[in-house]
Amino acid sequence: MTTYDTIGGSYSVRRRADRRLAARLDALIGSDSTVLNVGAGTGSYEPVRSRIIAVEPSTVMLSQRHPSAAPAVRAFAEALPFRDGAFDVVLAILTIHHWKAQRQGLEECARVVQDRIIILTWDPEAEGFWLLRDYFPDVLKIDRQIFPSMKLLRSVFGSIDIRPLPIPADCVDGFLGAFWQRPEAYLDAKVRAAISTFSRLASIGSQLEHLERDLISGDWERRNGELRDFTELDVGYRLVIADRRRAKLVNERCS
C-alpha cells in the first residue's frame, strides 16, 4: 500500500493544478514531445494533449483521474515498464519524496528519456517559511530527510538547471506551501488532509493551537504582516531541469 492509498481520497478536489504553475511547466515540456508523467497522481499538471502516459502506484489516486486524462499505468518509479529512451520528456511533479528508492527511481527516469527530465520539488536547504520555522519545525526535519537533495540530483543527472518557483498568493493547488499568505487555511482539517506531510506527524494539536492563538492575538500579523503585500513568494519550491542530450554530448567528448 502506498501513502496515497491511505490519504489520497480528496486529492482530486483539493489538489487542483494552478494555471500559472501549469503554464511554467507546459512551456518547458514543448508541444510535440512524448511525455511520461511519473508519480502522476490524479493528473494535475499533465499537459492536455496526446502522446502522454502516466505512471502511478496508488489505486486510490488512479481512481480519481478524469476520464479525459492521459492513459495511466500502475507501476512504481523504481521499475518503469518502458524501453530505454522511450520518451522525449519525463515529468516528476512533487513525487520523488514519496519514492522508496530515490536514486533507483531517478536512474529509471534517466533510462527511459531522450531529451529532458523536468522535476518539481522542494529544496531541503530552503529556509524561512514561517509555517515550518515557527509552528512545525518537525515537518522541516522530516522534509529535509525525505526530499531529494540537489546533490543527489546532480549525482544522477550531471549538470542540472535549478529555477525557483515562486508560489502565487492565491494558489489554488493545496500543497504545503500554497497558503503562505492565508495562515488560517492550515487550521482546516480538510486542507491538511490533502497535504501528505501532516500525515507523517504523530501529533499536531499543540502546533495548531499555537497558530490559532497567534492569529487571534495578532502575533502572526505582527511577525508576518508584510507578506500581505506580496503577490508571490519563494517558499522553497524548485523546478529542476536535466538536459539528457547535453549530458550525453559531454560524456561523449570526455570519453
Descriptive keywords:
255 residues; alpha/beta; Rossmann fold; seven-stranded mixed β-sheet; two-stranded antiparallel ribbon; 12 helices; globular
Strand segment tally: 9
Alpha plus pi helix count: 12
CATH homologous superfamily of the domain at 3-125 and 142-175 and 235-254, by name? Vaccinia Virus protein VP39
Q: What pattern of helices and strands is seen along the backbone?
A: HHHEEHEEHEHHHEEHHHEEH
Q: Can you tell me the overall shape?
A: globular
Report on the structure:
The chain has 255 residues and is an alpha/beta fold. It has a domain at 3-125 and 142-175 and 235-254: Vaccinia Virus protein VP39 (Rossmann fold, 3-Layer(aba) Sandwich), CATH 3.40.50. 37% of the residues lie in helices and 16% in strands. It contains 12 helices and 9 strands. The strands form 2 sheets. The chain has a 7-stranded mixed beta sheet with strand order 3-2-1-4-5-9-6. Helix 5 (102-112) links the parallel strand 4 (87-93) and strand 5. The model is unreliable at 4-9 (pLDDT under 50).
Please provide a brief summary of the model.
The chain contains twelve helices and nine strands.
List the helices and strands and how they pair.
Layout: H1 3-7, H2 11-14, H3 19-29, E1 35-38, E2 52-55, H4 59-62, E3 72-73, E4 87-93, H5 102-112, E5 113-122, H6 130-135, H7 137-146, H8 150-157, E6 161-164, E7 167-168, H9 189-193, H10 205-217, H11 219-224, E8 232-233, E9 237-243, H12 244-254
Parallel strand pairs: 1-2, 1-4, 2-3, 4-5
Antiparallel strand pairs: 5-9, 6-9, 7-8
Helix pairs in contact: 5-8
